[in-house]
Amino acid sequence: MKKDSFYVTTPIYYVNDKPHIGHAYTTMLADMLARAHRLLGHDTWFLTGTDEHGQKVQEAANARGIPAQEHVDEVVVRFQELWERLEITHDDFIRTTEPRHTRVVQEILQDLYDRDEIYQAEYDGLYDVRSETFITEKDLPEGCSLDNLPDWVKPIRETNYFFRMSKYQDWLIRYIEENPGFIQPDFRRNETLGFLRKPLGDLCISRPKARLSWGIELPFDAEYVTYVWFDALVNYISGVGYRHNDEQFARRWPCQVHLIGKDILTTHTVYWPTMLKAMGVEQPKCIFAHGWWLSGRDKMSKSTGNVVNPLDYAERFGVDALRYFLMSEMSLGQDATFTEEVFVKRYNSDLANDLGNLTSRVLKMVHTHCDASVPDPSSAVLEEPAAASLWAVVTDAVNGMETHIAAMRPDLGLHAVMTAVREANKYIGVRAPWKQAKEDDKQPLYDTLYVALEVLRVCAALLYPVMPGKMKALRHQIGAGEGDPRVDQLRAFGVLESGTPLLEGEGLFPRALIEKKKEAPAPKVEKKAEPKAANVVEISEITFDDFGKLALRTARVVAAEKVEGADKLLKLQLDVGGEARQIVAGIAQHYTPEAVAGKTIVIVSNLKPAVIRGVQSNGMLLAASKGKRLVLVTTDGEIDSGARVG
Ligand code: MSP
Question: Domains in the chain, ordered, with CATH?
Fold first, then answer.
């Protein structure tokens, strides 16, 4: 490794997918590592991007009746905007449709072809049209056979190009065995070795254009495009100058860590290393596969509609809280659960209670008793036993963060920081500065508050890569200045200068409430796609009694206003037959407050009350929606509010 160089990558995401919490997670993890290495003064490079070729993209573009390039140019923005919103600090964003990438792929293909690493052969076998992969008989679902194929599997006989992957099998096994850090965690390494126990075939790397044209053309046969994975994996080197900028490539490669999800282990630990070996390029230092975010116990998937949208959480709790949750809740390598309940619990206990309380009580006292500036401690302040033992825990947190990040366990690093925060809260409890404030001699009070401010300084620095926004604010509030924290000051006591004025600031982490019933997986989930061709949506029948449980009433909208911080919500004040009610409705993108005021609408008046974005909602209004259009259900003529509907 070049000294102090750190190059980290994320998978490049399929551009046809709407970015979800899984994509956001890998990218935030890479961002946290990149930020930490930058603070350490390392020559850091963080690459992410999008995978833009393939069947699904082509189909989506066809369905819209526009060229594939136009389609990807539009949808890539979703990812780019999300990364901006989530404060991702990638140094480069690579798209596989960019010439800087496609020409490198073509050069590699030509070179491998010229050296007989790629050959043409007849493929006679099975093709899974759903996943766009060649499969063998053993991959067929139970009950199926060559004589009884499922609809989506087609027998196929076509000429294709193959990469001589099989010849690297023995080399790869040896390489993995000799380099234990190459595939991490260990159980993923064993999984790859297990996979390599079976004979490894050659890799089909082409698709006839007749079947798929949206891809990079083979330079030696214009009738074919290359297989998406042979294209996508190359981004990790085309993005840092391979074949075109030797200086940049020498500076960045080999990559320190390719972060991936466990779903793409084989492509990264078998295809990619053998491709690099054939190209004569050094291997990456580490391929790290993390687990999956599950919704409760279930896999998140579009079809079950339980996919968490990171923006919902970022809007409701702030980007930093989302980043903190993701980094502290997943033990890297294992699966983890993402539900609103788990999120709010972690947020309240670590951020609102422990860190938020410590900060607010210390700052309040410094403002009240020390003229809003850093107090002057006595010279022997750290000799006092409570302060000494607290500082030892803080130093443990610094050491812990360092070792746990190196071992890819940011969750443990963050837990060590929270232990220090809790210890500081205990210290405040023991020293009781509110009592010290009543004494004539104010030095013990100043000592207590100075120690607490120093603890906050170190914790803010340790949490900085995870919560850059809030920790910048905190550093401001404790008089630690504008710039980034200095790593060389993490173990030093006495860095804050007495007399430095503290800046006013808002509470960092207000307490959060759960909005939905406990069993609900997330505050908002992506709606299932509407059935495309059908005009009528089939629903199961209910009895008259079922219907009778709904108390539908007319209501007059007396006043309406936007809910702060929520683009989609309006808060409505209603008159329901003389009774005043407040409801929150997701109609702000369709109605202005002025447009809805004065209308007579229909509400479900016996819906259990809920708190939405911290606002009480007593009931739900009815609206008709189709596609992007939404209109309120109103009455045909004048009728008093509170009238029964049904
Ligand atoms: N385009 C390929 C990758 C090519 S890399 C050379 C691809 N794209 S993807 O859009 O499907 O993204 C896959 C990645 O998204 C996973 O490897 C993982 O990093 C992340 N996640 C997607 N869903 C996830 C969860 N539910 N949980 C955690 N991360 C997951 O595969």
Answer: 339-489 (1.10.730.10), 544-645 (2.40.50.140)
